[in-house]
Amino acid sequence: EPEVTQTPSHQVTQMGQEVILRCVPISNHLYFYWYRQILGQKVEFLVSFYNNEISEKSEIFDDQFSVERPDGSNFTLKIRSTKLEDSAMYFCASSVSGGPGGDTDTQYFGPGTRLTVL
Amino acid sequence: AQSVAQPEDQVNVAEGNPLTVKCTYSVSGNPYLFWYVQYPNRGLQFLLKYITGDNLVKGSYGFEAEFNKSQTSFHLKKPSALVSDSALYFCAVRDSPPASWGKFQFGAGTQVVVTP
Is pLDDT at A2 greater than 80 in this prediction? Predict the structure, then answer.
């Protein structure tokens, strides 16, 4: 069964450094998402991406964040200058469509990248 | 704006007993509701969803959920819980375009503990 994959599984970085989190969505999916989960808190939406453009973003997704689909398979989240409060589990997700309706808008999640900012 | 609430931080149930995990929602338009499960050190796994139609939705691993429009609820149920069902369960809601283009709003999660 196709899966969303994410690398690395754990990233440790110093405050102020740039990090790039990588995701490979399911191959026939067209919509891509990033969420984050701070330890002990709920999963929060960051951004959705379709047709090489951001479709929707949350207030968390400020100028320090950017997303890119550099090729036909990868989807990346970049944090330009990490802060301590960026420490969280970051989940990538993908869906066939932006929906809603039918089976095509279900979002399938990757295993996550745990980001630790020191 | 959409929101979802899971009123219980933890649900404890004995193996073989019925399991219910509660979820209530608020959306401006038609609700599109989902349940996901998270096992330790794993991503979120899709269980089931309600888009339209029959109020009782059946999903993976024997789970089902009942959509109740009047009570704005979407409780997850399983008739007979297994120890392997112990995990963190998330309810999620999304709004329809153009209000939202795929953004899921997740609840805080409910930890389910099934004891042998």
Answer: no
